[in-house]
Specification:
Blueprint: H1 16-21, H2 26-37, E1 41-44, E2 73-76, E3 81-87, E4 91-93, H3 94-107, E5 113-120, E6 125-128, H4 130-136, E7 141-144, E8 150-153
């Protein structure tokens, strides 16, 4: 199936099925380029390793709770190691933010392993901690997708 690229700012207006069906993940490509440029090694952590979320190789993937919030990458060099969730826009769903915070609290030790969210845009990558995102919430606008999922539009 050929994916159609939505005009800028229009992808989130599609219904959920169409958003997934036509999603092209430029953000992961940008993030991997960022890692290479900054001399980080990286490993993709996707358990649902599929471009088609509807035919995911793990049955009932969407019903596995916090496990579905596993970060996209494990990034490391000789100085640090970081779990990284990669985002393609400055929008972050409320339910995802809660999961990121829970995942960080359960699986990261601030002394040894960090957790970051990488917002990957065409011209830059902005790395934020969950605490930094929480600090941005008062300045953010809340909106919702057609199916009712609420999300923040962060001022990045």
């Amino acid at each position: 199936m050929e994916k159609k690229i939505s005009p800028k700012g229009e992808h989130n207006k599609l219904n959920y099925d169409d958003r997934i069906k036509h999603y092209v993940d430029f953000s992961e490509q940008r993030f991997e380029e960022y890692c290479q440029k900054h001399k980080f090694f990286y490993r993709k952590l996707h358990l649902n390793q599929s471009d088609d979320i509807f035919t995911c190789p793990i049955p009932h993937w969407s019903k596995l709770g916090l496990l579905t919030s596993m970060p996209d990458y494990f990034v490391y060099n000789d100085r640090e190691q970081i779990f990284v969730e990669v985002k393609a826009s400055n929008k972050i769903k409320l339910k995802d933010l809660k999961s990121y915070i829970a995942w960080e609290k359960m699986f990261c030790d601030p002394k040894y392993t960090k957790y970051r969210i990488a917002f990957c845009f065409a011209d830059k990558i902005v790395m934020k901690t969950t605490d930094q995102i929480l600090e941005l919430i008062p300045q953010s606008k809340m909106s919702s997708y057609h199916e009712g999922n609420k999300y923040y539009i962060l001022p990045l």
